[in-house]
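stage 2 :: seqdesign
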C-alpha cells in the first residue's frame, strides 16, 4: 500500500506511522529522517538542504521533493510506503501525484489523524524533558513523575523545552492550518481521505486506522 499520513503537530503521527508501517510491512518514510540521512551522507540534496537550514531559511519544495523521490525509488519501497511529513503543502502533493503517475502508480489512502486544537496544545505544552537525558520524557497530565520536576529514571531536573511552550505550539498550529491543512481538501476531492479520531490509547488509534484501511 502507498499511504500518506497527515495531522496537526501533536497528533501522534510519528508513533502511528511506526506501528502502521510495521503492521503493513512497508517502510516509514519521514521528512525528518530524509533530511538527516541526506545531510549525514553528504548527498547533493543534503548539501543544498543544509545550506538553506544553516542560513535559517526554509528548504525549497524541489529539494524536499527530490529527497522523497530518491527514497521512494529504493528497493524496499517498491511494494509500498507510508509517508509522514511529506507532502507538506499542495505543491508537494501535486508533485507526488506526478511522480507516482510517471511510474504507473497511485496512492491508496491518505490517513488524517484528527485531534482538537486544545488537545494538541495540552499534549505538547505538558511535556517535560529530563536535562540529563532527553529520552526521558514525562507529561504533567498523562505521564506524571513520582516527584514533581524530578526524573524517575535518573533524578535529573525536568524542564519544558522552549518549542513546547503554548505560544510556540499555537504558532506551529497556525502554520499547519495555513500550509498543510489545504492538502486535506486536495485529497478529499480525490476520494482518498480517511479521517481517524486520534484520541485514546495508541493501540486503539492504530486499530481504527488498520480497520479503515481494510475497508
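stage 2 :: out
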Amino acid at each position: 500500500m502507498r499511504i500518506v499520513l497527515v495531522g496537526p503537530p501533536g497528533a501522534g503521527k510519528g508513533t502511528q506511522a511506526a506501528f502502521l508501517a510495521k503492521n503493513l510491512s512497508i517502510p516509514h518514510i519521514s521528512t525528518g529522517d530524509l533530511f538527516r540521512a541526506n545531510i549525514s551522507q553528504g548527498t547533493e540534496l543534503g548539501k543544498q538542504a543544509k545550506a538553506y537550514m544553516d542560513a535559517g531559511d526554509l528548504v525549497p519544495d524541489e529539494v524536499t521533493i527530490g529527497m522523497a523521490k530518491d527514497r521512494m525509488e529504493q528497493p524496499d519501497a517498491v511494494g509500498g510506503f507510508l509517508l509522514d511529513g511529506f507532502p507538506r503543502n499542495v505543491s508537494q502533493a501535486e508533485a507526488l501525484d506526478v511522480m507516482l503517475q510517471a511510474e504507473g502508480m497511485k496512492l491508496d489512502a491518505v490517513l488524517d489523524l484528527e485531534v482538537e486544537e486544545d488537545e494538541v496544545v495540552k499534549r505538547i505544552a505538558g511535556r517535560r524533558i529530563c536535562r540529563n537525558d532527553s529520552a526521558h520524557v514525562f507529561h504533567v497530565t498523562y505521564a506524571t513523575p513520582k516527584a514533581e520536576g524530578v526524573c524517575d529514571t535518573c533524578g535529573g531536573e525536568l524542564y519544558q523545552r522552549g518549542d513546547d511552550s503554548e505560544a510556540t505550539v499555537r504558532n506551529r498550529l497556525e502554520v499547519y492550518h495555513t500550509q498543510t491543512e489545504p492538502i486535506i481538501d486536495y485529497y478529499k476531492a480525490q476520494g482518498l481521505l480517511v479521517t481517524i479520531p486520534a484520541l485514546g490509547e495508541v493501540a486503539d488509534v492504530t486499530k481504527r486506522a488498520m480497520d479503515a484501511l481494510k475497508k
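stage 3 :: structure notes
- The radius of gyration is 18 Å.
- The chain has a mean pLDDT of 93.
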